[in-house]
Amino acid sequence: MDLGLAGKVALVGASSKGLGKGSALALAQEGARVTICARTLEDLRVTAGEIERETGAEVLAVQADLTTPAGVQKVVAETVARFGGVDVLVHNSGGPGLGRFADLTDDDWRRALEAVTLNFVRFVREVLPHMRQQRWGRIIGIQSTSVKQPVDGIDLSNGLRPGIAGLMKAIMPGLAKDGITINLVLPGSFQTARISPEAGRGAESDRALQAELAPLAAAIPVGRLGDPMELGSLVAFLASEQAAYITGSVYQIDGGSIRSNV
Ligand code: NAP
Predict the structure, then answer these.
(1) Are 31 and 6 in contact (CB under 8 A)?
(2) Is the dihedral of CA 126, 128, 130, 136 positive or negative?
(3) Structure pTM?
(4) How far apart are CA 229 and CA 22, in angstroms?
(5) 229 has a pLDDT exceeding 90
């Protein structure tokens, strides 16, 4: 299937590693020009080189701290300066810290609000004028299964991420009339550095990683963790021409972990 993404401009947040990287690579494989961003310049260089070599796509790497308004503005401004606009926003962030309610301070909540909620608000606000002008856009937010069902031990995520679904639904009709869709994907457990620092380090550490992750994998109906490229494929479809009638939706991608009916 030709997803109609050739030449489109895709900006992917928090994307030198993990789910952001998987999304950027999947979009580049479909012919999109991509902006990747993160704080660590060396990781960005390595990932940009990898995506360029594998796909031949044009990649812009921007160093930025996405928890600040200036960081978000910088990434959008540099994308527009280089590629002339933004067609696809894949919103992704470094994620809130771990922890249970009783151990979390006001400062923990404030930092998580910057990383999750304000980060989403700022990115959407910055790209909308560009999408509205061209009357076409795709916004895909990478959140977590905590939007649908609390995950044990991550109460910052449990408390804040469901609000992103509420906001997404609230703004969706106003975007639809300008040809802009907005959807969320909810990852369950994926093999990334957030789950284990060993993830993605090659065959030797991969054996140790599989042993470390075995109990977690056993609790997932399909019996394994997800590969970031599996999430990237879903993101690429939601960014496509074919997905024009899909908006205001949430898609869990979790190997069957969520047990609710809808
Ligand atoms: P990851 O592999 O650790 O990658 C995180 C990426 O975000 C890196 O490129 C990192 O680069 C960048 N980043 C972190 N903080 C940043 C900041 N302040 N400014 C700019 N870039 C930043 O993480 P992941 O597993 O892909 O997770 C991505 C998101 O999905 C997180 O919000 C996480 O909570 C959520 N999620 C993940 C899973 C999972 O199973 N992996 C499940 C549910 C939800 P730098 O550190 O160099 O900045």
Answers:
(1) yes
(2) positive
(3) 0.96
(4) 5
(5) yes
